[in-house]
Automatic annotation (TrEMBL):
InterPro entries: DUF2284_metal-binding (IPR019271). This is Metal-binding protein. It comes from the Archaea.
């Protein structure tokens, strides 16, 4: 079954028709650009650095993260624009959590159908509410990695794929990336 059909199963089951699904290229990561992205993580604006297995340093070294992405031949972006009060941190976390749950459901369905895959989203993983970091991750198979932690400069990456990335007063767009291989494709880094 094509992955877009699998996504549509999630859309129907979760009433998520307002999420955009678009096939895009796998990012062509360079060490210099990825390092810039990791330096942004170190600034800890999102307050996730050193507190979450999906973020540095817990997510692993940058080279390993880049290698994981290079194993995949296909990518999709899933995103949703929401009207929000940017000062409402609980509301922002809730909306981010909805997207991460959709990504998990999609990845799990892909796995059930024989598609090797991984997913990333804005910020740290929120599956457990409060991450066990630095203690062992309780649900590594449900972890959603951070886009930035993997060295992806999201704005440039989306624009390279014809998707406008903008900041607007009163609105936030939440992005998720799913990397996958077709059932018969071998993952090669």
């Amino acid at each position: 079954m094509p992955i877009e059909d699998l996504w549509n199963q999630i859309v129907r089951a979760k009433n998520a028709s307002d999420y955009v699904f678009k096939e895009i290229s796998v990012p062509k990561l360079t060490p210099s650009e990825a390092s810039k992205c990791r330096k942004l993580c170190e600034q800890n604006v999102c307050k996730c650095y050193g507190t979450n297995w999906a973020c540095p340093p817990g997510v692993g070294n940058l080279g390993d993260c880049m290698t994981q992405i290079r194993m995949y031949k296909h990518a999709v972006v899933i995103y949703h624009r929401s009207e929000v009060n940017m000062k409402d941190q609980d509301g922002l976390k809730r909306l981010s959590g909805i997207l991460q749950n959709l990504l998990r459901d999609f990845r799990n369905l892909l796995k059930e159908n024989g598609y090797p895959s991984m997913c990333l989203a804005d910020g740290g993983c929120n599956y457990c509410g409060a991450c066990a970091y630095p203690k062992e991750c309780k649900f590594p198979d449900q972890r959603v990695g951070s886009i930035s932690a993997y060295g992806i400069m999201l704005m440039e990456y989306l624009e390279d794929n014809g998707i406008e990335f903008r900041f607007e007063d009163g609105y936030a767009t939440f992005y998720g990336l799913v990397f996958y291989n077709e059932k018969d494709e071998i993952a090669v880094a």
